[in-house]
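Worked example 2:
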Amino acid sequence: MAKQNIHKLALNYFIKHQKELCKKYKGKELLMRGAKVIEAYDSFHEAAAAGRKLFGSGNFSVQECIPGDDAYTVDIQPLVFA
């Protein structure tokens, strides 16, 4: 499975199942591989370390499990130089 597909599948799965995942894992960091939750951790660092050990760098996703679209959107502001 291509890395891009792993991450896209994970994000799409999270968005589709966010409500039920938050009931079970609210506030946790989800270690995901494709459309599957592998494990829930208390911190991003724990989840990332476990993901690297299990799958190698870049072959997994870590998703913060919180309600709302803030869990999967980023607001990027342009830099303004004076």
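The two ends are 45 Å apart (CA to CA). The chain has one domain: 3-66.
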